[in-house]
Amino acid sequence: MTKKSIIDRTAFNPNAALPFELRISDFEHAIQDIYDFFYDVNTLLSEKGLHRLDDMMRPAAMSGLISDMVTASLAKFSRSLVENQHFNGHPDLILRGKYAKDSIASGSHGIEIKSTRKAGGAVDTHGARKQWMCVFVYEVDNNTEPASDRDPMRFTEIYLGEVEEADFRSNARGALGTRTATLHKEGIAKLRTTWVYKISAA
Q1: If I label 120, which of 11, 150, 181, 198 is the partner at 20 to 30 A Cα–Cα?
Q2: What is d(CA 56, CA 185) in angstroms, rounded to the nearest whole number?
Q3: 178: confidence class by pLDDT, cuts 50, 70, 90
Q4: Which residues make beta-bridge pairs with 132?
Q5: CA-to-CA distance for 202 and 199, rounded, in angstroms?
Q6: Which of 123, 110, 127 is nearest to 159 (CA)?
Q7: Closest CA to 116 of 65, 166, 163
Q8: Contact predicate 133/112, CB 8 Å
């Protein structure tokens, strides 16, 4: 039987200082949207005797999908943010009406959305810059046997904070020559102080 993740409402930070008129309820609705999607899709796949979406997708593709879904859901529930209509534009969510046709290649009024399986929220970005950055940390059970007993994907941490260019370290070029940057030790510690959702370890 397909399992469905349940939001731990006690894990939200009631004192979180959220920018751009965001509310804790916006994050709660976004999480629920994604949990519903995975449950519906995995129920259908299970009925056909196929693997769960969680098991079929490679980690990088899974993170990309979740980031896109988070962006769309937060835009749907937010009072002031919309999706950046520029292909691969930055940031992912921008202030409604700030840029022509809600589209900008590189803007400063909005929030960049990231997702990762790395506890603590360390994640690669395409470049160091001053920005509002939101990181959704999730976990996937790919190990429990039989597979039908595996727990569904769930979010364990959400961080949302304003970081500076100096908070990043540059990474060595990858095999394809792509430059990336990651928050350094002090930078990630800074981001972790501005948490929105955090499930305590069992």
Answers
A1: 150
A2: 33
A3: low
A4: 111, 162
A5: 9
A6: 123
A7: 65
A8: yes
